[in-house]
Amino acid sequence: AQSVTQLDSQVPVFEEAPVELRCNYSSSVSVYLFWYVQYPNQGLQLLLKYLSGSTLVKGINGFEAEFNKSQTSFHLRKPSVHISDTAEYFCAATNAGGTSYGKLTFGQGTILTVHP
Amino acid sequence: DAGVTQSPTHLIKTRGQQVTLRCSPKSGHDTVSWYQQALGQGPQFIFQYYEEEERQRGNFPDRFSGHQFPNYSSELNVNALLLGDSALYLCASSVQGVSGYTFGSGTRLTVV
After folding, report:
1. Residue of B43, B94, B96 lying closest to A106 (CB–CB)
2. Is the pLDDT of residue A44 over 90?
3. Any B CB within 8 A of A106 CB
4. Residue A52: pLDDT band by 50, 70, 90 thresholds?
5. Can you tell me the distance from the alpha carbon of B31 to that of B23, in angstroms, rounded to the nearest whole number?
């Protein structure tokens, strides 16, 4: 069975500071990995995705993530956050093919709060 | 280019009633998936439709059913509503075989 664990439920940070949101996954097969952001009372917006190739993935709004197969991690980073980055962030995975391909498994979410 | 459209945005139902939620996928997308997001939780996969058939199903009871129409739009039906069915229901569309999922803004269902 596939699982995704987000290691921090809440991350407070000051404006212009760097931030890392941690995500570990467990799967017996190769996976595709995603980070989504959710603003209050809204749906999910894709920040970035890893399918194959370079392990460093760049996304929108200055976010990036690094896929580490040996540590089964896909941590999200931003070198300098803004107040507008305050939101909930979800890490998700799906099998890279096979019968469960296309079914996203989500972590529990990390609430990022950026303080002035 | 319209994204994923869900209706209604909010809904209040009484325990035991039935509800139908609707989703229009992004233009060019042929696959629709439904997710349930309880308060404070990550989304949970309900099922996926492609070519008007249910292709995958998550760990949800048979009270949850769906349909996909020839124009790729989809409905989620929930029968015999329970208080625990209160959640944000998200629809995601994609192209079969391509890993790109676009989510709608969701339908907030409250069961009283």
Report:
1. B43
2. yes
3. yes
4. confident
5. 11
